[in-house]
Structures are given as structure tokens and as C-alpha cells.
Amino acid sequence: MADTDDLTQPPSPPIAITLRDAAPGDEARWRDLWAGYTAFYETDVPPDVTAHTWARILDPASPISCRLAEREGEVVGFAISVLHPGTWGHGPRCYLEDLFVDPAVRGGGVGRALIQDLVTRGRAEGWTELYWQTMANNSTARRLYDSFTSADSFVRYCLPLS
Fold first, then answer.
1. Which of 19, 32, 106 is nearest to 65 (CA)?
2. Most buried among 40, 79, 131, 155, by the most CB within 10 A?
């Protein structure tokens, strides 16, 4: 039987999400999440490419950055983005290349917080655009993305060169 005092208590506040840049000590957890991300997309990224990606994330001279989301002290998601010049504006553009949230905490605002973090940073730093893509059948992610902006009408082409 439930304690009647529990029924009169207000709902628990949402668990706070902390966002920060990746640091060297995050590698093991990032790799765990990265493995989940690549499994979701049914692809194998070679170990040397994963190592190279991590090295570029930590390199302050690299245009690649990684923001991590923490809940209760545990890293539960990441957003990897690439800042680059564009030809249709003066400021840089930001490509959100990889976004992943641990399935155990999905629906808790982590993905939204990671995207909003990039929006806020972009506005503060004068980016002209933040853009990303996802698979057409990724309806869960698309519901989140559609809350920020509508999908455009472009069609993606990808020609492997190596």
C-alpha cells in the first residue's frame, strides 16, 4: 500500500543536465556512447578513425568539437560538431555531425539541451547557421528536430572517395 503522504507531495523536479566540453578523462565513456551511436546507424567505424576523431575533439586547433551532457555526474550524451566557413554569409556555419543520447535516459531533455547549447553558442559567437541531417525514418529524432526548425527540401548525395 502506498504511503498517503507520497500522494500529497509535489512531483520531483527534473534531473539537471550539465553541458560541457569533452576532456581527456571522458574517453572511455565517450567510446561507449560512440559504439552505441555507430550500432544505431549499423556501421563500423574503424578503430583508427575513432581514435583520430577523439584526438581531433581534444585538439583546440581542430574545427571539430564535442559537447557532453551529464546527468547526476554521468556522461549520457554527446554532440559533435564541425565549425567551418561558408559562402553564403560572413560568419562560420556549424554542422552538427553526430548527436547521441544514451537510450536509458532518452526523453529526458538531453538531446534538446545539446542542440539548444549549440544554438546559444552559435548566436553568441556569430555563426550564420546550425544544420544537421538524420535518416528519413528516424521519427523519434525528427520530432525533436522539428521542434527547432522544419526540414528543408535538399536531397543529400554522398560519393565515397576512399
1. 19
2. 79
Using CA of residue 104, residue 97, residue 56, residue 71, what is the dihedral sign?
negative
Handedness of CA 157, 125, 99, 145 (dihedral sign): negative
CA distances from 17 to 70, 86, 117, 160 (A): 6, 32, 11, 37
Place of cell 575533439: 57
Residue 35's Cα: distance from chain center in Å? 14
Q: Please work out, in degrees rounded to the nearest 5, the angle formed at the alpha carbon of residue 130 by the alpha carbons of 19 and 133.
A: 95
pTM given for the model: 0.88
What residues pair up with 18 in beta bridges, in sequence order?
Answer: 70
CA distance 149 to 109: 17
Whether 31 contacts 47, CB under 8 Å: no
Q: How does pLDDT run across 100-153, given as a tens digit for each residue?
A: 999 999 999 999 999 999 999 999 999 999 999 999 999 999 999 999 999 999
- pLDDT by residue (tens digit) across 17-38? 999 999 999 999 999 999 999 9
Alpha helical stretches, state H, 22-138: 27-40, 47-58, 110-125
Q: Which helix (H) or strand (E) holds 102?
A: none
